[in-house]
Amino acid sequence: MPNKSKDIYEKYSPVNYVTSMSSKILLVHGIKDSVVPYTSSVKMFKKLRQKGCTAKLLLHPKGNHGFEFVLKDHKTVEILKKTIDFLTN
After folding, report:
1. End-to-end CA distance of the chain
2. Which of 17, 35, 63, 64 is most deeply buried (CB count within 10 A of its CB)?
3. CB 26 within 8 A of CB 42
4. DSSP 8-state secondary structure symbol assigned to residue 35
C-alpha cells in the first residue's frame, strides 16, 4: 500500500514504467473490486494514452476482483469477447 512505503510502491507500480514504446495493452477491471481500486486501471489507461500507446479499458460496473470467474452476466460475456478480439487482432 502506498501509505506504508511510497518508495516501494512507486518502484513496483507499472504506471511508472510506461513509455511511448510500451506494447498495446488491454485493461479489464471491475468497478467494485475490493482488492485493487479500479481507479488504478483508469490511471494506467490515461498514462498509456498520454504516451501515445494503443490501450483499451473495459470496466464492469458490478465486477469485483476476478469477476470473470464468478459472474455469468451479459457484461462479463461481452468483456470476454472483447478480450479475445483484442488478443487476436
Report:
1. 35
2. 63
3. no
4. S
DSSP state of 4: T
Distance between CA atoms of 40 and 46, rounded to whole angstroms?
Answer: 10
**26: which 3 cell numbers?**
488491454
Q: What is the pLDDT of residues 24-52, one digit of tens each?
A: 999 999 999 999 999 999 999 999 999 99
Cell of 83: 478480450
Say how far apart CA 32 and CA 16 lie, in whole Å: 24
Cell of residue 40, nine digits: 488504478
**CB atoms closer than 10 angstroms to residue 10:** 11
Q: Are 54 and 24 in contact (CB under 8 A)?
A: yes
Domain chopping of the chain, boundaries? 6-88
Could you tell me the pLDDT band of residue 6, with boundaries at 50, 70 and 90? confident
